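question for whoever is on the cluster today: can someone run the full assembly for these? two chains, 602 residues total. i dont have access anymore since they changed the login thing
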Amino acid sequence: MGGSFIMTQVDIQDRLKAFAVEFDRYLDRVLAARDDIPGELSEAVRYAALAPGKRIRPFLAVSCCTLVGGKRDDAWPVAAAVECIHSFSLVHDDLPAMDNDDLRRGQPTCHKKFGEAIAILAGDALVVLAFELLARDVRNPRQMGPLACELARGTGWSGMIGGQVADILGESQPPAIEQATYIHERKTASLIAAACRMGALAGEAPADSVDRLGEYGISLGKAFQIADDLLDLSATTDVMGKDTGKDAGAHKQSYPACVGVEQSRLAAQAAVDKAIMTLEPFGETAADLRSLARFVVSRSY
Amino acid sequence: MGGSFIMTQVDIQDRLKAFAVEFDRYLDRVLAARDDIPGELSEAVRYAALAPGKRIRPFLAVSCCTLVGGKRDDAWPVAAAVECIHSFSLVHDDLPAMDNDDLRRGQPTCHKKFGEAIAILAGDALVVLAFELLARDVRNPRQMGPLACELARGTGWSGMIGGQVADILGESQPPAIEQATYIHERKTASLIAAACRMGALAGEAPADSVDRLGEYGISLGKAFQIADDLLDLSATTDVMGKDTGKDAGAHKQSYPACVGVEQSRLAAQAAVDKAIMTLEPFGETAADLRSLARFVVSRSY
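^ ran it for u. tokens below:
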């Protein structure tokens, strides 16, 4: 088991890297500078969206689409839309009024490079772009409504943005596991789940498969966020490419703050196990999604 | 002419007021607080969106829909979506990193009331809500793609947000009429035009009517922005319900700064005339839209 486990980890990392190269080419084309856009704005948008990243959400969208028998090409607009939302969230989270971070993905944060006003507007533009890409590039017009609904719910006031608000308000409250779970489900898991559900929808999956892949996304997202909190405690800025060790100082609600490192690792592993169990009906075709779930927590060991 | 002109002005103001009461009831229901949204966030979103306003954009959406023979009810989701975008733009424009305003619609600005982080996130939530309302409430699924495209183009990096970037960058440049026109077309006119086009689309208008009403919106938007710049020069904070006289201090690109007050008034009137001329094929049914165009510049006399 140990050997094959390690093999799988190497494999999924290679697959993620290869996917990111392909996806970044697509995103680069989609975000090409245009005459009718102020140069500074398209520069800031491209800087934020095309900075090196693991592209886990686009990978999920494309993987869930093909898993249910959809065509790979049908998932690209969805993948790009979800990544635009993710990039927007990083730009706004890093702002001085929020987490006030100077480094992101190994580079100066957007507001450090372009100033605060342009960074706020670049984030705004990325949200709008996400919906524009769906509206413009999704080939089946009947899918547009359901896809936009999923993206809005994953992103909006009951999803990621709601989670970010809870995260900020949680800083002034004592650590509580219910609070941390509430924040994780919204801030991180809801967009990851939306990526999965939207990929499945793009692949014309039946409703129960869409729901199942959404549940996988929720569990994966929880595991991902706990692993990220653990990494923030232990890793150096150099490894993470962003400022680390700040969460404890900012009194963020996190699993480590609530239940300690060991219990947090167990909780992350439990979430991964649940994610993998959810995939059971898909059998061997879901191998990538299983490997990805294992990989997500392996980062924090 | 003088008498009937004044009558029309009184009339359109009454009609706008009656419309605003009806629209605000709809928006209030659409933005109802929910258990799954952090209380502070829905409070900030509702504070921003439901603050007293003229509701010109929703009025345009509904008027253009009925003008082309559509049902009034079909335009409400469009009207609400456009107003959410408008409210978002006010919240973000007022931020310390942007125009740094303390007053808006006669009340403390969103960040003065809720803090900067929550204000940024409330603005973000309003953008997402706009697209969610379209996706959820537009009855004809075939319209969803075209409507979302229009809203994204009017709002995004080639529309309003692009105009806001140009506005900020323009502060460090000497006044130039081409620059001011570029900014007005994007920052103000593009969302107003989107409201008109989307209303027409919701009413199942043929493409040439959609385009014509979009042109009307562009001219109206230009007139509106010049009038707003003139008001900023002359009105008191009390009348405007927001900080005034700041544009000149901030070296904003504006018609008055470029060509003086008298030429600016002529330019606004010329834009109104053009807007009214565009409506010619619609005959008497477009009376409201004509009155609205006249009303928009009458504010600055």
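summary bc i know u wont read the tokens: Strands of chain B lie at 103-104, 107-108. Chain B has one domain: 2-298.
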